Amino acid sequence: VQLVESGGGLVQPGGSLRLSCAASGFTFSSYGMSWYRQAPGKERELVASISSLGGSTNYADSVKGRFTISRDNSKNTVYLQMNRLKPEDTAVYYCKRTRDTLWGQGTQVTVSS
């Protein structure tokens, strides 16, 4: 049972990235999924979440209108499309199975010119 994130990197302010989280070892379509982030010296915060079949999404106010969470249950993958990135979006991004404590290892996103 694991979650593996990918897609992080260095991007200029105003740029875009798409993060992916590949799930294995469990029935992916039965679980809501979430993206969190943790910036240096700050607590981990919820960025976005999506219901098991993708019909419901929620976002932190700080990313609403810029980030989009989605999922492809045929590929056991959840995505986070991040547009109009800001330096304050710099953090390690983690995916998580919403209802319990299964976390991925994280992927670094750095927004800097």
Can you give me a brief rundown of this structure?
By secondary structure, the protein is mainly beta.
Detail the topology: elements first, then pairings.
Layout: E1 2-6, E2 9-11, E3 17-24, E4 33-38, E5 45-50, E6 57-59, E7 67-72, E8 77-82, E9 91-97, E10 107-111
Parallel strand pairs: 2-10
Antiparallel strand pairs: 1-3, 3-8, 4-5, 4-9, 5-6, 7-8, 9-10
Tally of alpha and pi helices: 0
Would you count the extended β strands for me? 10
Biggest sheet strand order reads 2-10-9-4-5-6
User: Which class best fits the helix and strand makeup?
Assistant: mainly beta
Which residues form runs of ≥5 with pLDDT under 50? none
Percent in helix: under 10%
Give the CA-CA distance, first to last residue: 38 Å
Backbone CA Rg: 13 Å
Q: H/E series, N to C?
A: EEEEEEEEEE
Strand residues, percent: over 45%
- Global morphology: globular
